[in-house]
């Protein structure tokens, strides 16, 4: 009669492949979810960045348009204020007309 082999209790158990697969899946799912989370966060940050850039561009356009309006107004005012007679006296008619236009625009 052959003598029985002495085995450790771990060797008698058959390997549970299901649980190992589940463990592997969860770790790989965790890694996948972490990479997906990173991608999603990156995409959200990029969207926020685009919104910020668009806001800045709109603000720049608004500032530039206001600057242009001020330039045109200044040009008109200086045109009226710089007119002089041959002797160097200011032409008050132009200045008065300019002031009247300003008052009319305020009343509207």
Task: Give a brief outline of the structure.
With 108 residues, the protein is mainly α.
Most strands sheet: none
Give, in order, the helices and strands: HHH
Percent range for helical residues?
over 70%
Low-confidence stretches: none
Task: Describe the secondary-structure layout.
Layout: H1 9-12, H2 17-82, H3 92-107
Please name the defining characteristics of this protein.
108 residues; mainly alpha; 3 helices; 80% helix
If you had to describe this structure to a student in words, what would you say it looks like?
By secondary structure, the chain is mainly alpha-helical. The chain has one domain. Helices cover 80% and strands 0% of the residues. It has helices spanning 9-12, 17-82, 92-107. The longest helix has 66 residues, at 17-82. The radius of gyration is 41 Å and the shape is rod-shaped. 0% of the residues are buried.
């Amino acid at each position: 009669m052959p003598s029985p082999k002495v085995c450790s209790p771990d060797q008698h158990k058959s390997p549970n492949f299901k649980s190992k697969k589940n463990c592997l899946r969860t770790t790989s799912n965790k890694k996948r979810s972490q990479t997906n989370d990173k991608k999603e966060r990156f995409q959200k940050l990029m969207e926020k960045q685009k919104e910020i850039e668009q806001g800045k561009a709109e603000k720049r356009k608004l500032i530039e348009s206001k600057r242009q309006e001020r330039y045109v107004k200044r040009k008109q005012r200086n045109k009226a204020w710089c007119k002089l007679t041959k002797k160097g006296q200011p032409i008050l008619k132009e200045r008065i007309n300019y002031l009247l236009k300003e008052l009319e625009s305020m009343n509207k």
